[in-house]
Amino acid sequence: MTKSDTNEAAGRHSLREWQDNAHCFWMVWRREEARLAALEDPVAFVTEANNLLHEYCPGVVVELEGPPADGALVFSANGDLEHFPQVLALIATAAESTERSVLCFRQRLGSPEQFAIRMGGVEMQAADILVRCEEWRGLPALDVAFAKPPKAEDLETSQRLALIMLDHVLGEWDAVVKVGALDFVEAVPPEAVPLHRLPEKLDEVWKALGRDAFYPEPEWQYTAYQRDEDEENEQDYLAMYRFLDYGTVAWNVCQISMLSCLLIDLGGLGPSAASLLLIVLGIWAGAYCLKITSKIRNYKLSIMATPKEVLDYLDTYDEGEKQAEMEEAYLILFKVNQLLIPGIYVVLVVLSVVLGQVQLVALLVAVVIHLYTNVAQLRKTKRYFK
């Protein structure tokens, strides 16, 4: 029998391969269970059980609830959706292989109010984590904040603890399958609830979306084809926003070209055919971009948008999109401030020397733009560093 590590190298498993891997594990388990049950140390039991499991199912872990002699086995994919079908295949073939209780995925805690966990000197309780749960793109989305902001050096550990606790409080299946997006936020969002109250809130949002807790049978087949569908949706999502950005850039370039042609035509008898064509093209492209933006972002942006409108529009972005926009905006500002405008100064100096006349108007325009890009940043300082 080919083991699943060979299948991993090939990429994806088929349903038959998942079943074969599960049968192979349970054959070995029947032979070794008596020896493992005699172990007194639960840690040694879990270590040896996982060594057996990883021979055939390397993406899955087994945990123990209770003593080694008769404790329940909990099979988990560690929150990785790709390995959910393998967990479900193990559960489907377990009945004839062991008399122990076998649990599919980490279950919801019965009393999450007292749940606490410690890692790397940082201790977190359920009440320390506040979560807002609301609909986003057809699935529940979570904004996670801390009741007391952690120290900068403890932030990464605190976020890891929050994710682990979320897995236990919601249950592994709900945390992965039902939650569409998760973002860590600095300020506590409105309508946020303590972590131990999140399960009831998630169930409420899930049912409000017209969903229930049932999936097509068998569940592991559903998980397999859901993964393919999610990957296709992700590609469609990326393509949609990529073409929206292309269209926005094309519209802006069209406007710049139109204004340039109109300025050149001022010395003539009137606007040229090229200018008129660019005006028509610019109006059409602008209307089309605004229409598409309204559909995709669900936000109606006006043609002459104000700074406040733009900030409101930015709120329609998710955290990853905001990060990409901020990084690119910072790089553009840096290049304009440190490279482009100083380069214009050099060109103006050379022109002034060659023509024997100081290019005063152009120099003043460059200075004003240069001053604005620097002084305007004080608004950020006053707003965020009071």
Considering the chains and any ligands shown, give keywords for the structure.
disordered N terminus; 4-stranded mixed sheet; elongated; alpha/beta; 3-stranded mixed sheet; single chain; 386 residues
Can you offer a commentary on this structure?
This protein has helices spanning 4-10, 15-37, 42-54, 84-92, 155-170, 172-178, 198-208, 219-265, 273-297, 307-314, 319-355, 360-375, 378-384; strands at 61-65, 72-76, 102-104, 116-119, 122-125, 129-136, 139-146, 181-184, 193-194. It starts with a helix and ends with a helix. Strand 2, helix 4 and strand 3 form a beta-alpha-beta unit. It folds into 4 domains: 4-104, no CATH class; 112-208, no CATH class; 220-316; 325-386. Helix 2 (15-37) packs antiparallel against helix 3 (42-54), helix 4 (84-92) runs antiparallel to helix 8 (219-265) and helix 11 packs antiparallel against helix 12 (360-375). Residues 1-12 and 215-225 have low confidence and may be disordered. Helix content is 59%, strand content 11%. It is elongated, with a radius of gyration of 30 Å. With 386 residues, it is an alpha/beta fold. The strands form 3 sheets. It has a 4-stranded mixed β-sheet with strand order 8-7-6-9, covered by helices on one side. A 3-stranded mixed β-sheet has the order 1-2-3. A two-stranded antiparallel sheet has the order 4-5.
